[in-house]
Amino acid sequence: EAQVTQNPRYLITVTGKKLTVTCSQNMNHEYMSWYRQDPGLGLRQIYYSMNVEVTDKGDVPEGYKVSRKEKRNFPLILESPSPNQTSLYFCASRMPGQGLYEQYFGPGTRLTVT
Amino acid sequence: GQNIDQPTEMTATEGAIVQINCTYQTSGFNGLFWYQQHAGEAPTFLSYNVLDGLEEKGRFSSFLSRSKGYSYLLLKELQMKDSASYLCAVRDRNSGTYKYIFGTGTRLKVLA
User: Fold this and answer.
1) Residue A98 pLDDT level (bands cut at 50, 70, 90)
2) Which of A18-22, A65-69, B24-28 has the lowest mean pLDDT?
């Protein structure tokens, strides 16, 4: 089954404790992206990757890091989480280029930082 | 700058037709998408427009006017299961890369 998976699905952590949210897709997609979703603010793009070893900042990259060492995986790293990073996070992937290549979203990771 | 506006909330009756509007401003427009998102779930793709005009897909249609920076999603024969948030998103192309800008979503309530 074609899918995007994220782990963990739920996480409660404390300020400053480094964490990684994993994202993996089995569709051989080149483009992958991370979003956060907050009430009243909608989905905002954090980072995206056009291909292996190619990453770019989205609209809200501060406090986050990503890496793309292989095509299927795109982990999101919070080196020193803070309470304002409490949010619902989605990973997504799509085929490269323009045209009708819609994004496939993972199930989401609900992160709480206390 | 880049901006997308859509109404926060709408209410309609089962069996009716509802139109959700979206206006946008981007520097490198490269397509407009509509997604449906049920509470607590991931967004799922509904429609895509890159040229002006209407795209129809079953009970859902989407319209685009690039000159006006305007799109709408039309839902016909509303069903209770259509109660969800509807997200308008624009793909923006800049220097060969693609970013996505989402609106805040329109929460649709379908009443019996």
Assistant:
1) low
2) B24-28
CB B98 to CB A45 under 8 A?
Answer: no
Q: What residues have CB less than 8 Å from A26, skipping those under 6 apart? A: A2, A3, A72
Q: What is the pLDDT of residue A1?
A: 81
- pLDDT score, position B1: 65
Task: Please judge whether A108 and B42 are an interchain contact, meaning their C-beta atoms are less than 8 angstroms apart.
Answer: yes
Q: Could you tell me if B69 lies within 8 Å of chain A, comparing CB atoms?
A: no
| B68, B78 Cβ separation under 8 angstroms | no
In which band, very low, low, confident or very high, does the pLDDT at B95 lie, cut at 50, 70 and 90?
A: confident
3-state secondary structure A8-76: CCEEEECCCCCEEEEEEECCCCCEEEEEEEECCCEEEEEEEEEECCEEEECCCCCCCEECCCCCCECCE
B16's tokens = 């009716």
CA dist A47 → A59, B31, B49, B51 (Å): 8, 19, 24, 27
CB contact under 8 A, A43 and B45: no
Establish if A63 touches chain B: CB-CB under 8 angstroms.
no
